[in-house]
Amino acid sequence: MLISNVAIRRPVFTMMVMSALVVFGWVFYRDLGVELFPRVEFPVITIVTRLPGADPETMELMVSDPIEEAVNTIEGIKNLRSVSTDSISQVIIEFELEKKVDVAFQEVQAKLGAIRASLPDDIDEPVVEKFDVDAAPILAVVV
Question: Using one digit for the tens of pLDDT, what is the confidence trace for 118-128?
């Protein structure tokens, strides 16, 4: 009851304390350097290739395996896997955390460019993408 008695008997003092708390809070909030969602780049790169009308076995033999063999020589690979489905090949390359994503992206593009001639002629251009955390949806609504 001590705080309530002071607040009732001395309203000017109470108002000045509240104003000081608001001013100090605003000043320190402005200089606060903590982010709730800091920018994080995971060293994961995916290569998606389409070959219309191909079955999964053909995608594996003609597209996924040559791409895996080419990028396997890049230094710093932690995990390399591929998924081949009807008409689509997806090669997922996970690098060590120390590896810079931009450098790894350039190396993957260079290796892919080197083997592009050995891939089937009727494939769509392979799409090389970096894994982006910010591209993930925040909310999914199911109706």
Answer: 988 889 999 99
- Do 64 and 9 lie in one domain? The reply is no
Do 30 and 54 share a structural domain? Answer: no
Q: Do 111 and 70 meet the contact criterion of CB atoms below 8 Å apart? A: yes
Both tokens of residue 79?
């995990």
DSSP-assigned letters across all residues of 31-60 = T----SS------EEEEEEE-TT--HHHHI
In this prediction, residue 1 carries a pLDDT of: 61
Q: What is the four-CA torsion angle of 124, 71, 90, 102, rounded to 10 degrees?
A: -90
Say if 63 falls within a structural domain. Answer: yes
d(CA 37, CA 39): 7
Residue type, 62: M
Average pLDDT over residues 44-55: 93
